[in-house]
Amino acid sequence: MTAASGAPWLPVGRLRRQRGRLRNSEQVWRWAMMAPVLAMLTGLTLLPLCALLVLSFSNVTWRNARPILTGAGLSNFAALLHDSLFLTSVRNTLVFAGVAVSIEIALGLTLALALGAVRRGKDFYTTAFMLPILLPGIVIGAIWALMYNPDFGIIDASLGALGLPARDWLGNPDTALGAIVAVDVWHWTPFCFLLLYAAVESLPADVFEAARIDGASAWQRCRFIALPLLAPAIMVVLAFRAIIAFKVFDEVYLLTSGGPGTSTEVVSLTIYRRFFVEDRAGSGAAMSIVAFLVLGAVTLAVMGVIRKKRR
After folding, report:
1. Does 141 share its domain with 239?
2. How sure is the predictor about 78, in pLDDT bands with cuts at 50, 70 and 90?
């Protein structure tokens, strides 16, 4: 016992050993708590990904209702360079994702900034803006298929009322992809709006008030204060939407099934055809691996930009 504190005296070495055992027990407890999540991640993500990777280097045949895998090397990947359908689907997917995501982020940011300036009725407007994203994909496909119908659809009926000619939006190769982009914009703009609106609400009000007192216009406050502060949130939304847009399937499948011709063929639909229609699992797995690598590269690039902006 020390005279100053009355606490028991322990050697320094023993105290360090006790602290080390405490840290080790904490680490063991943390890993034990993470074990179920890691097991689920391994079972639902890593193992299927490894199986897909093995499949991409194989040719699959069937015998007695059982798959027979034979080594194919890099032939499945090499064949993609000369696969006109796959190359067309990649081009259509890039065009679709680039146009749709750009419009959605622009509209979502505009709506978020506009609603941020509203003082009454924010809950009502937020709920109204969120309605499209709450609908299932099958319902969205049915709604827009009826709206685009050239015989009784509301879009061509409205054009006819204005004296403009009706068009077969989904049956014309020149307009089919644009029509699907419009559906995707209607469906996913609320997602961009929700994330960006949360970021707008977290902006420091005193900074804007100081800028207003200094004589900055509304446009200047938006251009030089709001947008730089919102840049990390915009990049996060861009990453999420780019990944989701690159994987688009349900809207295309329900509205055009890739047609007319290959004008709306996208990567996910081509992979579906290879696996379940053409029964070419090796080629479909190679396409899936390429798509996974592209999405991974996009995600890493966007995350790198976000880290730089935070510094």
Report:
1. yes
2. very high
